[in-house]
Amino acid sequence: MASEEGLRDREQQEGYRAPRVTLTIKDFDVLGRIGDGSFSTVFLARQKQNGKQYAIKMMNKHLVMRNKMVEYIKNERFILDKLDDAGIAKLHFTFQDPDNLYMGMEYCAGGELYEQINKRGRLPLDAVRFYAAEVVLILEYLRKAQVVHRDLKPENLLLSGEGHLKLVDFGSARAFFLPAAEKPPGKQRATSFVGTAEYVSPEVLLNAPLSYPADLWALGCMLYQMIVGRPPFKAASEYLTFQKITDRDFAYPGDANYNADGEPEDEEEEEADGEGAAKDAAAAAAAPREAGGAEATAGGEGAGSSGGAAAGGEGAGPGPGPGPGPAAGGKPPKLPKLRGPVVYPDEARDLTDRLLAMEPAARIGAEDISELRAHPFFAGLDWARLRAGTAPPYQPPRVPGAPGSDGGYEEGLDWELTSLVRDAAES
User: Fold this and answer.
1) Domain tally, the chain
2) What catalytic activity does the UniProt entry give for this protein (predicted)?
3) Residue 210: its pLDDT value, please?
């Protein structure tokens, strides 16, 4: 099995695609924070020896052991080591010190899909079709690999520098080729689910056996969110959200019972838009393709979250990509927010309905993913060239650690990250 070029496993074992290396945090220049998981901090780092950039996920051993999440961390490492697909963020290497575990992940220059939806209010239909199709390819690969992700959501789908999707955060995943991890105490109730409230499938809430269609339900939720701008099942609390899921209580734009109150609001006209555009342009001008944030998953099982930690290419940094590049003045254009009434096309509605079927076996693609490929919503797509083709334009996110970025983590001023790295280097 091929390992990361130039890196050897510390015990000279060839069975690892991602070797266990003898690196330390001192071998990297820490460039800035990407985000945080339940027991982890994710930061952008450049390896001093070769200049490559990685999203380094640092997990505190004490917190992992105190919360009895060791098996989940092991499972994530084993699963990522076995996966090898263009739609999965690559694990390049792992290392550790007395206090922390480290995973060197691909760095995704385009940030989270969630941020693209949030910035524009919703996505154009051609972008929705493209991203949904790439998720279909990812799920097709995972099924062949005997893996259910269990936390599929826009926050866990990152864009490469070229604008293609990469799935991250396998801390909640279940690989049928591995023994099930023992649940920590207090995590046995039906509502102590694995995943995130708005995307969890009804069978998970009802303690039904886990199966591949759980990820198909999440795809249906994301399809709706990309078109409308918010998830189909969202309420004031997790409990009420669970109720909406088990009652399949949602409506499409144009339906008599549709409530538009939860839709993203238009911004306060041009002055506010202009100010935001200036900030985004200033951050993106420094590096037009950068990474998204990380977020803790709901439920204890998400402790292994890689959050927004992953990739574009071989971790060597941003590529050119088809996203909005710098204009004449060196500033990339801000993609406009989509305004006006939401239109939910018939083909998209049919696909959403069939993905959000209450019975897992009834969901389109439950038996064969090729059913999804053949749906009219994807008519005209060249599946064989999808990942090699041009991706939709995207709004570049902030540069981790860049001065003037709007993330609040300007270089040299992220005292918490500086302290974490210093303590790790001294351990």
Assistant:
1) 1
2) L-threonyl-[protein] + ATP = O-phospho-L-threonyl-[protein] + ADP + H(+); L-seryl-[protein] + ATP = O-phospho-L-seryl-[protein] + ADP + H(+)
3) 87
